[in-house]
């Protein structure tokens, strides 16, 4: 009897060991799934809708907002970027100028080339999206971060596989202003309420980062 009881207890023990292992592996797998966020730059067809001034200065943020999925996420300052074949030459030139703008801040360091494993990377590409005739705006581009999280028993590692894209259906999108805006999204910046910011959601031909834009980057890459 004692031998049978011992066998049952041993089977019960290993049953819980297997269930516990499966639970840990499930949590590990789910924690590694990417989380993405995309935001677009719009160009209104009617100039009257281009700006929405913030009347109360007290409500103006001190820094350009951070994308929700990047908040409280530790990211390296180094990124590797590459161009998709479908991106026209004017778009590539615009993105190269935008990359130089962000590298000058010292908050991030963007390098052209293939990203090593577990490293930040940004894909620069074009896409096609024709707006309906009744729409009073054009979508010139879109971009955003994709946070990858890997959890082990010893640590949690996170990196960003962001994208920055230009709408090839509108040649006016192949500009430095659009590139700076969408690259900002890929790095983790959200839309700003200030028309002076490169992250304002409507095209304003802004190509230089404001002190609030720089502060927003510093908040992410401290």
From TrEMBL:
<dbReference type="GO" id="GO:0031012">
    <property type="term" value="C:extracellular matrix"/>
</dbReference>
<keyword id="KW-0472">Membrane</keyword>
<keyword id="KW-0479">Metal-binding</keyword>
<dbReference type="InterPro" id="IPR024079">
    <property type="entry name" value="MetalloPept_cat_dom_sf"/>
</dbReference>
<keyword id="KW-1133">Transmembrane helix</keyword>
<dbReference type="InterPro" id="IPR006026">
    <property type="entry name" value="Peptidase_Metallo"/>
</dbReference>
<dbReference type="GO" id="GO:0004222">
    <property type="term" value="F:metalloendopeptidase activity"/>
</dbReference>
<keyword id="KW-0862">Zinc</keyword>
<keyword id="KW-0812">Transmembrane</keyword>
<protein>
    <submittedName>
        <fullName>Zn-dependent protease</fullName>
    </submittedName>
</protein>
<feature type="domain" description="Peptidase metallopeptidase">
    <location>
        <begin position="68"/>
        <end position="222"/>
    </location>
</feature>
<keyword id="KW-0645">Protease</keyword>
<keyword id="KW-0378">Hydrolase</keyword>
<dbReference type="Pfam" id="PF00413">
    <property type="entry name" value="Peptidase_M10"/>
</dbReference>
<dbReference type="GO" id="GO:0006508">
    <property type="term" value="P:proteolysis"/>
</dbReference>
<dbReference type="GO" id="GO:0008270">
    <property type="term" value="F:zinc ion binding"/>
</dbReference>
<dbReference type="InterPro" id="IPR001818">
    <property type="entry name" value="Pept_M10_metallopeptidase"/>
</dbReference>
<feature type="transmembrane region" description="Helical">
    <location>
        <begin position="12"/>
        <end position="31"/>
    </location>
</feature>
<keyword id="KW-0482">Metalloprotease</keyword>
<feature type="region of interest" description="Disordered">
    <location>
        <begin position="44"/>
        <end position="63"/>
    </location>
</feature>
